[in-house]
User: Fold this.
Amino acid sequence: MHTRPRVIVIGGGFGGLSAVRALLSAAVDVLLIDRVNHHTFQPLLYQVATAGLAAPSIAAPLRHILRGQRNATVLLGEARKIDVVGRTVDVDVDGVSYPYDFLIVATGSTHAYFGHDEWATHAPGLKTLDDALRIRARILTAFERAEATTDPVERMEWLTFLIVGGGATGVELAGSLAEIARHTLKREFRRIDPAAARVLLVEAGPRVLPAFPPSLSEKARRQLERLGVLVRTGHAVTAVDGQGVWMGTERIAARTVLWAAGVAASPVGAALGVAVDRAGRVPVTAQLCVAAHPEVFVVGDLAAVPEGIGPLPAIAPAAKQMGRYAATAILAQLAGRDIGAFRYRHFGSLATIGRMAAVADFGRIRLSGLLAWWVWLTAHIYFLIGFRNRLVVLIDWAEAYWSYRRGARIIIPVGNTQNDEHR
Assistant:
């Protein structure tokens, strides 16, 4: 007979992993369920997508991360059904159903195409390592197709890269793409000049980086333009196909379109059987639990927190704080203690534009340019999981800084089943 409380955590991202780690010394049995076997440092996904880093540099196996936590078990699988009345989770592994005493759902978010899911085929988003590898192949293949064609119109279409969405991901992708075209691929082609590539960043709102103060948004725009990025604000994309996009009556021909315009909550939230908001998020109490089920916690991008607490930024520190809080709330319930409302502590926002260019907002302190870039670099190295990851990323960035080289420029066809350890 099972005597220790059973905690199931769905999702091995920042929120879920932080919750598991916070239960390290607790007298509970933790089961972490994720459909992939690794934790990904999402803030650096764009580096993999633009060939700056190999996939293993920003990811680590969940089993390795939790190897020293004896009360934690990792299960590779996808949660198919959640029975909040019977307190079980069905997983797509031999149809097994796992019982729980407490449940933490931390499955994050996915891409949002504002009712046009058919655009996903032509404008992939960036949320997972698989997304990053596919985007990387698409970007590098575009240069190869431009080199191969003899049609100047088609060549320009292949050399036009359009990013939809001027948030942090869009800005980082645009800046990195501009550096690839103007520096990394220099002298590597015979028929084309990669520097002739056009990189366009399209934002429906009035400015890029809308979560930052207007002054930093303007500095980010100027830094992007110095890199050669064409920034179009106040323009909404109204249609996407394999050869480009429409913005109202204006047509832009681009064979590579990348989506960074919006996110939607993971569909796992709907499996809880409670009403979700328009973005698919699960409403939670100030203690981050479902009102009718205090044993069920929802953290990260999937949670719609009360007005007094949120809205919270969709960034890693918020998810990590929520995950740790959920673990603390579980221990409080087991001890028969009350716990205060969750409080998010904001440490600042960072976004990099390119080599020695970034912006940082710490409230009263606002930085841009080289100093902000050093702060961004230091923060990301620090928060990477594992000494090896930090060392590898530091070496790769140091090499790229001095040489402009990007070592992960291997095109692996989609669907390739060979070993991808060094992708």
In short: Residues 6-35+77-111+263-334 form a domain with the FAD/NAD(P)-binding domain fold (CATH 3.50.50.60). The first strand starts at residue 6 and ends at 10.
